[in-house]
């Protein structure tokens, strides 16, 4: 693995350990060059309660690797999480910097009713 990826995964592990210690339901985000993925994972990490990505049929029509697509994923995951009965989550950015698409997804999820 490249040093850049190893450093990102180390940051992710550090934050995930803290979230596990606090026993928080987490909103986990992953971004690739072409897509955005978001999952709401139970406090013990054993179950995915809700998920959304740019691979979903409703979001796949337009571009999938930009800020607008990330906003749509954030709204959709918030909608599905609320349907599953989850309103309070911890934001797990998976070691990615909090800007651009990651920030757009988080802001849209907050507007959709999730509390971080």
Automatic annotation (TrEMBL):
InterPro entries found in the cross-reference section: Ribosomal_L18, Ribosomal_uL18_bac-type, Ribosomal_uL18_bac/plant/anim
GO molecular function terms attached to this record: 5S rRNA binding; structural constituent of ribosome
Origin superkingdom: Bacteria
One GO CC annotation: cytosolic large ribosomal subunit
Any matching Pfam family: Ribosomal_L18p
GO biological process: translation
Key words of the record: Ribonucleoprotein, Ribosomal protein, RNA-binding, rRNA-binding
Keyword Ribosomal protein among UniProt keywords: yes
PANTHER family hit by this protein: 39S RIBOSOMAL PROTEIN L18, MITOCHONDRIAL, LARGE RIBOSOMAL SUBUNIT PROTEIN UL18M
Function recorded in the entry: This is one of the proteins that bind and probably mediate the attachment of the 5S RNA into the large ribosomal subunit, where it forms part of the central protuberance.
Subunit text: Part of the 50S ribosomal subunit; part of the 5S rRNA/L5/L18/L25 subcomplex. Contacts the 5S and 23S rRNAs.
Family to which the UniProt record says this protein belongs: Belongs to the universal ribosomal protein uL18 family.
Protein name in the entry: Large ribosomal subunit protein uL18
Origin species: Halopseudomonas yangmingensis
Lineage: Bacteria, Pseudomonadati, Pseudomonadota, Gammaproteobacteria, Pseudomonadales
């Amino acid at each position: 693995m490249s040093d850049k990826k190893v450093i990102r995964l180390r940051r992710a592990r550090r934050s995930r350990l803290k979230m596990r210690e606090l026993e928080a339901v987490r909103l986990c985000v992953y971004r690739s060059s072409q897509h955005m993925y978001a999952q709401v994972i139970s406090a013990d990490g054993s179950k995915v309660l809700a998920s959304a990505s740019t691979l979903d049929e409703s979001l796949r029509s337009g571009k999938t690797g930009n800020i607008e697509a990330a906003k749509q994923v954030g709204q959709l995951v918030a909608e599905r999480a609320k349907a599953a009965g989850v309103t309070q989550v911890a934001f797990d950015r998976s070691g990615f910097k909090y800007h651009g698409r990651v920030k757009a997804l988080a802001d849209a999820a907050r507007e959709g009713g999730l509390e971080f």
